[in-house]
Amino acid sequence: MSFNNTNTDILIAGAFAAFTVDLLVYPLDTIKTRLQSPDYRRLYTTNGATNRSLFRGLYQGIGSVVLATLPSSGAFFTTYESTKTLLHAINPTLPSSTTPLVPLPILHAAASSTGELVSCFILTPAEVLKQNAQMVVRGSSSSSTTHAFDGHATRQAFNKFRNNPSQLWRGYTALVARNLPFTAMQFPLFEFLRTKIYRLRERKGLKSGSLLETGMVTAISAGAAGTLAAVVTTPIDVVKTRIMLAAAGGGAESQREKVIKEMQAQGKDAKAEIERAQQAARGGRAGGLAIGKEILRTEGVKGLFRGGALRGAWTALGSGLYLGVYESGRRFLERRRVGDEGLAPY
User: Fold this and answer.
1) Would you list the DSSP string of 134-164?
2) Distance (Å, rounded) from C-alpha 225 to C-alpha 186?
């Protein structure tokens, strides 16, 4: 599909899509972070059953993400579209054929990976703040809707980095390690599915070129592709979560005393829980591979895929909305700028 869009169109469409998705699926992301946390059992379970704390403050940390997601998503789509256009232009065809020398899925994977490298650098500090804010435990009164967008949790998370702000970028490698394979799988599959659906609709005489069709076809293609990529990359996502949560790890002794008191008050095995917390802290300073091995040793394969079903579900919703709104948005902006007569063909 071809569009006659300017970089401004792409930036606006990408930012609007990111903002829309952040508001709608953020609660699911918060629950996923808590499920993947090494402190999940200590903070969110009572006698082996999930307690209400898991569902409190589901919008904690959203402010930092919204502020960073707008420029990072704009940077991603601008880089992705520019790189994809460049690679298509320089990709020669095979002799006596119209088949490109380098398969299109490889070009799309390379373009999306380039976009992720740029986007992740902008997004990493906000992602670290977000995940630490999502883990701030609030009282029962926080379930009130008046506290839904309270910035207290974000400020509390930010205070942990005052003495060492460089730690905000600690998770960059982990974020890239998760997002590169994710986008390398999602975007080629997304482009393939979208092309197939449009060709099928064209053969059946159903193709209209409307904004609704653009949004629906894109949403279905992106949702299906995103779900598969999300489930496959869940182990990397679990490791990334552990690294980012451990990035704030200051005040180890006071935190240890606090945990002991909490465990004793709840009648839990304080020694076992403290050992788990210490392993998590060591993991924050270790490499991703070492953390993955530790999770596998202590929690098994199930631990590496913790939150995978939820991640797949919210990625299906999030990716569908994200790319659906993005494609519809830039098509709308193109129509406003050049008129229906000057639209690029699908």
Assistant:
1) HT----GGGGSGGGTT-SHHHHHHHHTTTT-
2) 5
Which amino acid is it at 98?
T
174: amino acid identity, one letter: A
pLDDT bin (cut points 50, 70, 90) of residue 263 is low
Local structure of 101: helix, strand or coil: coil
Q: How far is residue 88 from each of residues 3, 221, 324, measured CA to CA in Å? A: 14, 21, 23
pLDDT tens-digit series, residues 43-97: 898 888 888 889 988 999 888 887 887 788 888 888 998 999 999 999 888 787 7
How many residues appear in the chain? 346
- Backbone φ and ψ of 250, nearest 5°: -95, 165
Tens of pLDDT along 182-195? 988 998 999 999 99
What is the number of other CB atoms lying within 10 angstroms of the CB of residue 78? 18
Backbone angles phi, psi at 288, to 5 degrees: -60, -40
Q: Give the Cα separation of 49 and 44 in Å (integer).
A: 8
Query: 43-50, long-range: CB within 8 Å, 24+ apart, which pairs?
Result: 43/135, 43/137, 46/266
Is residue 206 packed enough to be buried (19+ CB in 10 Å), middle (13-18) or exposed (0-12)?
exposed
The string of DSSP codes covering 171-232 is: THHHHHHHHHHHHHHHHHHHHHHHHHHHHHHHHTT-----HHHHHHHHHHHHHHHHHHHHHH
Question: Which pLDDT does position 284 carry in this prediction?
Answer: 45
Give pTM, 2 decimals.
0.75
N-to-C CA span, the chain: 5
CA gap 74, 61 in Å, rounded: 21
Distance in angstroms (rounded) separating the CA atoms of residues 122 and 67: 10
